[in-house]
Amino acid sequence: MRNAALSFSHALPSVRGKLTPDAALAPLVWFKSGGNAQWLFEPEDVADLRAFLSALDPAMPVMALGLGSNLIVRDGGVPGVVVRLGKACGKVELADPLTLRCGGGASGIAVSSAARDAGIAGLEFLRSIPGTVGGFVRMNGGAYGREVKDILVEAEVVLRSGEQVTVSNAELHYSYRHSELPEGAIVVSALFRGEAGECEAIQAEMDRIAAEREASQPLRSKTGGSTFKNPDGHKAWALVDEAGCRGLRQGGAQVSEKHTNFLINTGDATSADIEALGEEVRRRVKEKSGVELQWEIQRVGVAK
Predict the structure, then answer these.
(1) d(Cα 64, Cα 78) in Å, to the nearest integer?
(2) Per-domain residue ranges for the chain?
(3) Is 29 within 8 Å of 71 (Cβ atoms)?
(4) Known catalytic residue: 33?
(5) pLDDT for 163-172, tens place per residue?
(6) Catalytic residue, candidates 177, 193, 282, 284
(7) In the annotation, is 282 catalytic?
């Protein structure tokens, strides 16, 4: 993709942040596989992002990248511009005694820890979401009985045009692992509201969640998090297990022995291996139970 990236160099707006052509994405995603971004843009701040998008050719695709935890980047890479928010967009501040203003680049751990320090309960579940505010606002991230829709007041969003708008919880029309955030929009901050709590009790709940995740999920492996959405009335992992897929392999990819709703890169898997394994699991589950699993992991880019 190098020549294609360089051929657009004359058309891209100037930036204050970092703009890298033909940038490797594999080191930035949990699976550690996949091709390059045509361009990787790491803005200096929100104003830099807005100016860049407003001047960018509207035909140029734009995609946001957080921690890369719930993502398969296909081996042919990602056309257009991949935007990665850095530390300048990752601040977490107290807006009022029960509300945090969180930058789009802030991690779930950073948000839940700030909530604990402020005595705000109800955000502990974010400790278990391996992503950033931008990603879990878009996908209505959730775990341990709570979802982002339960705590979000509103979000600040930069549209593909560069315009910055405020969207309320209601305007996102949240459903299970889904929102109606406009295509190409990037969440740059969010207001999360909890309830008054004791710091010690909040920490204890965070510790419980961390221990449960460690015991049940392959956190030490190259993985992408939960692979499939839970169908109505079912648990995805149980359907995968019942279909005989525990430990199933495709090239360097494998269904986790520890938690069957996780795919892992055993060392040299291509993204094609991982995606093909996921499709084979879907086929076997459909054949066994009649249930059609839906991907929770996002798959982006082009095949090689």
Answers:
(1) 11
(2) 2-87, 89-215, 219-300
(3) yes
(4) no
(5) 999 999 999 9
(6) 177
(7) no
